[in-house]
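User: Can you predict the 3D structure for this chain?
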Amino acid sequence: MTLTTVCKEFDALTLQELYVLLRLRSEVFVVEQNCVFLDPDNKDQQCHHVLLYKAETLVAYARLVPPGVSYPSHMSIGRIITSMQVRGTGVGRQLLDFSIDACYQLYGNGPIKIGAQLYARKFYESFGFVQSGEVYDEDGIDHIEMTKAAPASL
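Assistant: Here is the predicted structure, written as structure tokens:
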């Protein structure tokens, strides 16, 4: 499967890109997970956005959050999603690999902290994230904080 990856600051997104990323986030987080919450949280404008397309269709997305926005001294990756049509094909792994590398390029080689849905813990552990907080409820879904240590200096 050939995918095209795009990473842009908020102000560089086209209206079409913004619409499809917000639609995919709503499809997964609101409709599929049956979770009523306010997705636009005033962080998007400070972030970079990773969009993975299969042909012309957005199939995966992540938000790269600079230090000081979600966590005081950690960069973060959030709103990590894949559409139902590509789950189980490795697209999620490709998305997270790209997102981790992009975080280091954009924000330096510091640690990355995420708020992960508890059911996905093993997925994130396979990328070197370790649980760094207790289970907490966010909008009716169990989450945990996880942290990936800064890469070793060369």
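The helical segments are 15-32, 91-107, 121-125. The radius of gyration is 15 Å.
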